[in-house]
Amino acid sequence: MSLSVKESTLGEILNKYPFAAAYLEQQNLKVEGRENMSLNEYLSSLSEDEIEERALDRTALIEGLESYIAQMLAFLGEEEQKVSSLSILSGADKSGEPEGFDDFTIRTGEIIAIVGPTGSGKSRLLGDIEWVAQRDTPTNRQILINGKVPDSKWRFSTSDKLVAQLSQNMNFVMDLTVEEFLHLHAESRMVENRDEVVRKIISCANDLAGEKFELTTPITSLSGGQSRALMISDTAILSRSPIILIDEIENAGIDRKKALSFLLSQEKIVLMATHDPMLALLGDKRIVIKNGGIHKIIETSSEERAMLEEIEKVDRKVQNLRASLRRGEILTRESF
């Protein structure tokens, strides 16, 4: 808990921990008009008769608020979100040969591409990270968080997920509209300003999707691209998972570069398995997978960065042609 309950004003406490309002209400303490007071100052302003009438205990109230905030932070998983680095310690490939590196650390704000032939082991690497492998998977890799062996609850908790994974195939089975789905997720995260957050998610999703959709659209009616756009926006804005794993975003039918920029703006670590040269070069580094193991790790060179500009020009032309086809237009040489 970085903010001191004893030294902070009630306004500062509620600004940082909005859920603390529920605790104060339960104690019949009205904050309105006393936002500039500390809790101790507020209690001291009450007469002895008021203290006695309400059966208030100053020390127990302050300690109770500290305990309540700590418990809520643990419940929401916010303390564990402070992940600044992810380290992969080498294991072995399918033949049992040592991988081509010793250890590799990825820091917040970095994009790492994972490349290799189909079936080479890209998904296995994503699986090791999601499972927070501790030399107990077929690759014998070990995953460290902030340079340390992570708490085992990262592996088993359903609420404190270290990793959010966006897979190639994404299908909804619930009979809900987009708005109902997002509100349900926001409620489970105890978000205070749900309407505002839901509007932000739908706006970002429509900015990524090729074809826009409405809050009233049933989630089972969303196309593959719309589903991926919705889940990328939902993951970036609502999910507290600090690490995002993406499997072949190039097949999602969305604005790929914009999606990655959006995820990075939320201070995530992003790893993506890809066959797309543009996405691979957008990464700070790329992991090359061969025969089930990490063969080598390459840092994107200045020459490759220069090539990326040319690749992006070609990609924009292809995207424009795709949009023209969707509109039912006839393609011409001039349109290319």
TrEMBL record:
Keyword Membrane found: no
Keyword Lipoprotein among record annotations: yes
Bilayer-crossing regions: none
InterPro entries, per database record: AAA+_ATPase, ABC_transporter-like_ATP-bd, ABC_transporter-like_CS, P-loop_NTPase
GO molecular function annotations of the record: ATP binding; ATP hydrolysis activity
Keyword annotations: ATP-binding, Lipoprotein, Nucleotide-binding, Transport
Residues of the ABC transporter domain: 83-317
Pfam family name, one: ABC_tran
Stated family: Belongs to the ABC transporter superfamily.
Record's protein name: ABC-type lipoprotein export system ATPase subunit
Organism: Spirochaeta isovalerica
